[in-house]
Amino acid sequence: MTQHPTADQGTSHTPVIELRLGNVANGGVMVARHEGRVVFVRHGAPGELVRVRLTEPGQGDSFWRGDVVEVLEASEHRVAHVWPAADALLAKSPEDIPGGAEFGHLDLAYQRELKAQVLTEQLERLAKFDPATIGFAGVEAPEEEREDGLHWRTRTAFGVDRAGRLAMRAARSHHLVPTPSMPLAVEAVDALGLDQVDLTGLGRVEISAPQGQPPLVLLVPATPDAAGVKWAGAAANRVARHVGEAASVALLTQESGTAADGAGALRRVSGRTWLRESVDGHEFRVTGEGFWQVHRSAPATLSHAVLAAGEPAEDEAWADLYAGAGLFSSLLAQSVGVTGSVLSVEGAPGTHADARRNLHASPQARVVRGRVERVLLEEAGTRPDGVVLDPPRSGAGKAAVAAIADVEPERIVYVSCDAASFARDVALFAGRGYELTQLRAFDLYPHTHHLETVAVLRKKAVAS
Predict the structure, then answer these.
(1) Partner of 321 for a Cys bridge, out of 135, 177, 378, 389, CB 3.0 to 4.6 A?
(2) Which of 417, 419, 451, 455 is catalytic?
(3) Hey, what domains does the chain have and what are their CATH numbers?
(4) Could you give the CA distance from residue 174 to residue 437 in angstroms, rounded to a whole number?
(5) Is residue 293 part of an annotated ligand binding site?
(6) Is 346 annotated as contributing to ligand binding?
(7) Does residue 417 carry a catalytic annotation?
(8) pTM for the whole thing?
């Protein structure tokens, strides 16, 4: 029987339909069909029978999106949401569920099964490659994980709503939801109690809280003009008074004439503007706006996986692309020794400065700032033994893949945080003569749809 969308009694302009959910898709949504049209559904699980409130039901659209508002037949893997507020909002206003824990209603082991399915599907569809042929064994837990998968984020970003309250964006929306507690963040983030402070004048609040150190609170003005910076400065002073010596506070502005190459100007309000991280005895300085992995175990987990995959040896030459603060560069430099070499490439000015500081004691490491493809073009004629690349979520892309392939490394260790861009780049590398030979995946974002992969690509043997 054809089922036409019916308006929900409490929300007359948002149609509700009954659907049987199918497989998971990239992005953490479930796929269903309604009268021949695909519907992407949040807050569900494969096989469930649910009522779905449509959020984008344009009659001429090829697909719709929707949110589960009632579960009629629940999956055996459904559990109480790790974020209690999400369960309370499910039936009333699912659009108000903050983004960042979209798998929080499923048990942790099943989340990893779904992530493995997505990674496999993306590789099969985009790269025409079945990861089972190289022994892919599914998504692994990170080192030193809590059983409940909570309190792993050492870096958490919040918005600020019009009332000056700490908030997070709802998924696929600019709508801000007041967020007094974030269960995925390390306990030190909630302990600051910033939900009790008037944050009027700020557009973003970023909290970094490495283990064993006072957190650093980075504040960004709501508007970059002089008046906006003045309002933000007043809010920063309120935050500094509230946290006292429990945290450092800094303001990141983009005032005209103060920002170089698009970078913000970091202004100390209290404490210091940088943090110190440690991995396997290596110390790293990371400035407030610099990049560092968000899961507390991610730096060690990924470092160990990268070294095991690439097997860098003494005297070898390596390149670390999208190097960030120099995490992999430092460990590669130790592996190749003073008779080897490491080219560390990073484009962001502040993060590049971090890498220079962190690698100053490694004479075999050369730190270069710039776009990967430009730097590699300038390095034409050199052939590294190996390349590590850890690009942003958008992946490396055609230009960078071509530049890497042109220097003909023997092996490429690709670290990725997005299944779709990774699969696309695997296909691009295949077109340049490289094949995927090893693949591991890690659940470094529990209760979200994200995962991290570490893969090895090698030059295909030429048939004689």
Answers:
(1) 389
(2) 417
(3) 6-78 (2.40.50.140), 113-144+294-459 (3.40.50.150), 155-277 (2.40.50.1070)
(4) 41
(5) yes
(6) yes
(7) yes
(8) 0.92
